[in-house]
Amino acid sequence: MRLHSSNACFRLSTTLLGVLSVLCVTALGQTPSTASPSQLTKRLVGDYSYSSKYQTPPYSAKQIPYSKLTHIIHFGVGFNSDGSLAVPDGFLEPTLIRKAHKNGVKVLLGVGGDFPMLDNQPDLMATLVANLWTFANEYGYDGIDIDWEYPTLEETNTFYGLMVDLRATFTSPDYLISADVPPWGGSAGAGTGYAIPQVDSYLDYFNIMQYDCAGPWTQDGQLNSEIIWDPSDPDPWECQPGGAANEAIAIFLQEGVSPSQLNMGSPFYGYVYNDVSQLFGECADASHMKNGNCDGSVYAENYGTFFKQRINKKGWQTFYDEVAMVPYMLRTDGKPGFITYDDAYSTYYRVWYADWQSNLGGTFMWSLDADYDGQSQDLLDAMYSASLPPTNSASSVK
User: Fold this and answer.
1) What's the pTM value of the predicted model, to 2 decimals?
2) Domains contained in the chain, CATH given
3) Model confidence over 311-338: pLDDT tens digits?
């Protein structure tokens, strides 16, 4: 059974009725109370890209609601072959650091780039880390986030060495270090070189990128970010292992990571499949493509400027997967068209499930700007509401 959104409130499972009744009250229009980050006992991390201030509508340090976050990761810095930093024009925003710190929010420098060039290059790695230290201290950052997608098994030692060098320089507890990791974890069987058990003690937390199960690289209309795995998926290999939040959490716990070190990701974007007519339906042209994928018939869009305007409007109808606990859209005229996205309901439940059902350390989103419609941020409001502690007890957030 698939539920139409007019039946909202997620009447999907008798074991979750209590939680979902709260979800409905929150997501159907209540204005979240204002609180300082110190009242959040779970991390709520905002992934903020410098480039978002050039988009329409623009989203910059001026638009960020700092009181609804505990941390911000400021993305956009890379590095060159000599270890010097590649800082894009327009990246620096002194207002971001100043406003964040005024509100008790910590800001990490998000670093990406050609990390494999560090293989067997200890001097180059040392230069990069030293340059990161200088930059972070000059501009007031509280730590470093590493976005390496994805180290191979042959690069395991490089990833490990980078974490060791970073921690030796950015000492705890004065500085934070985090890493963005895929939902399948770092096991050898998954073919990744994150060395999760080995780097665990050097990192403050892992950001689980629980999204992109859908996309042009699939041959079916997949769900972008399932909360509970739906076993009716005819091609689970497109998303497995770690195809849903519940499975990804289990993988990292099995690798020995403490729940308090895990942040579950929630997407503020989704995908449009032009040639798919039903959930898990095959792309019409996939069999004719050389790689067997949907390719150009699938494209990404943001919630704030695209999906929000189409929820039961403009020829689209919203349904919910009763197992995965996330919405999708189909065309009302029956023509091909499938959208996988997240709304306030699924966002709230994903955060509640991660924070309070699974007792993780917190959540984050990619990306902070993507649910902004020029006036409001429905998904961030849902994340914030779900992150508030069920009781008035409070503890510090690292």
Assistant:
1) 0.91
2) 35-269+344-387 (3.20.20.80)
3) 999 999 999 999 999 999 999 999 999 9
